[in-house]
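Task: sequence design from structure.
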């Protein structure tokens, strides 16, 4: 008979693995930091799957609005991790770093003013929602079976 913590650990690890697979399948894994942020914590009859707050933006996009102070650097790091390069505009300094900074600045400004393409087009990348719901259903079933086993064991020992 499985113990509650084992069931929780198994199913949360399944969720973690499936999210990583979906991120790879949807090519949403630039630096690997977001998927690496997934951590399973199991305590006495409870469990938490920790993850970056970026997951919601990965599924739904990000609307327009304030951006972090270092957003241009974040975009530059993202572009580098994705292997994105930019070409100098006519008359622009051909220094690759300044070209990438200009590109990242334009992307950051566009996101700040309009939001991401995923948000603007009202599209949806199913990174975690379906996985979470399916695995929670399986976990509920496993927990119910575990509880029934415990109750029948109690009944057997009282006779």
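Answer:
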């Amino acid at each position: 008979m499985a113990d509650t913590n084992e069931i929780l650990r198994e199913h949360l690890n399944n969720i973690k693995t499936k999210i990583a697979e979906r991120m790879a399948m949807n090519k949403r894994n630039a630096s690997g930091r977001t998927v690496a942020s997934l951590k399973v914590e199991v305590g006495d009859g409870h469990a938490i799957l920790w993850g970056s707050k970026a997951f919601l933006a990965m599924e739904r996009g990000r609307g327009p609005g304030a951006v972090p102070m270092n957003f241009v650097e974040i975009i530059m790091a993202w572009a580098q991790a994705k292997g994105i390069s930019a070409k100098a505009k006519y008359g622009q300094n051909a220094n690759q770093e300044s070209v990438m900074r200009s590109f990242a600045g334009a992307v950051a400004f566009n996101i700040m003013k309009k939001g991401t393409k995923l948000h603007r087009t009202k599209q949806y990348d199913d990174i975690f929602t379906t996985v979470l719901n399916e695995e929670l259903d399986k976990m509920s079933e496993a927990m119910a079976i575990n509880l029934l086993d415990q109750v029948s064991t109690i009944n057997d020992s009282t006779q």
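The first helix runs from residue 4 to 25.
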